[in-house]
Amino acid sequence: MEIIHVSAECYPVAKAGGLGDVAGALPKYQAKAGHFAKLVMPMYKTKFLYANEWVVDFKGQTNMGNWFFEYTVIKESTNKLGFDLFLVDIQGLTDREKIYGYDDDVERFTAFQIAVVHWLSNWEHKPDVVHCHDHHTALIPFMLQHCYQYRAMSDIPTVLTIHNAQYQGWMGWDKNYYMKVTTVSSSYLAELRTSANGLEALFEYEQGKCVGIINGIDNEVWDPKTDEFLYAKYTSRNVTAGKLKNKNAVCKQFGINPDKPLAVFIGRLVGEKAADILPDAIAASIYATDGSICFVVLGSGDPTVEDRLNELKSHFPDNYNCYIGYDEGLSHKLYAAADFLLMPSRVEPCGLNQLYALRYGTVPIVRSTGGLIDTVVDMGEEQGFGIRFNHASVADIIYSVQRAVSVHHDKKHLLGMRQHMMKIDHSWEGVVEQYIGLYEGLR
Ligand code: ADP
User: Of ligand 1's atoms, which has the minimum distance to the CA of residue 215?
Assistant: First the structure.
């Protein structure tokens, strides 16, 4: 099957969050499963662009309203990512250092989508499916189906995956027979019917066209056995010693006490992740446990939260530190070093952090929402391996941290959970099968 993915992000080319991880891994594993997977994204000015070899695939000219523009599609020439990677260069629009955050993002991503459809219309054959990711590409199914100019492509099935419905851009989409909507977990799909930032009625009405498929993780990138970012590599067989080496090194780096359980938060410092309650929750949890827990935070986002997190350092020098910024390598080190990963998210369509934590033997402490419900079983249940709570509140976090501290004393229980969670299979191979089954059903 020939699948063309369209996305604003793709790791390692350009990543802002989970979308980048998924868009980098799904085509890779589809290609491994014997399909022709391709991905097209905007050409940003990234390190990856300058560090790799490119050939010009196509040059075209089209228009957005009455603005005519030229675009160039370049292709990475060595199949470095395991699938065909195409970048669309629209001078003055896509060629920026950041992915998002510009005043003209609407124009940037609209022109990108128009260029992609124009480019597709110049292919000598049609792909079997066009798989779009999030709102930056969500107009494409509509354009393929309804633009007179592109009517020859109106029979190409399309899939739109909603990685996060809070960010909607301006979604011009239509409901048509071929268009199938997926989300990245079944619980998130169910939640969208009651909480979708204004689109609730649509999700309720269109239930029959929607399906939730949990993301996979790239086991080649996220593997404590081979991860070059780690201070010490390990497997489930030597998880206790391996994690301890990483923890000692990380605690030294951050100047905190390595003898206490370590909980980390990694993510965007935004309301969706409940980052606003993080400073209070950390302070209150340290007090409530008489200083028996340490925290490290890695993230960036809301400047007020960033300031408060920085300010907290002087209050708890032995128990707390943070790095405000984005650091891929440090995130790997923290997943490996931590005993616990805290995710109090208000909204979590799928969540990748908890899946990485499981792979690294780190007990997830998560709020029961979206994909966190589908992937974390509370340790109070049979075969449980995580800690779940209901409210994004300081009180619920304190209670959960207390549970974490007490299970940390029970070394046998902790080891059992670690070994169990490290064996859970969240690889892309199974997810790829689910997507291919879905595409087949559209043909
Ligand atoms: P979202 O897409 O909503 O940001 P996900 O859990 O799906 O959340 O994915 C987040 C991804 O971004 C993970 O790979 C996580 O490790 C990474 N990440 C988030 N913030 C940072 C940061 N400050 N430094 C390094 N990696 C980060």
Answer: 7
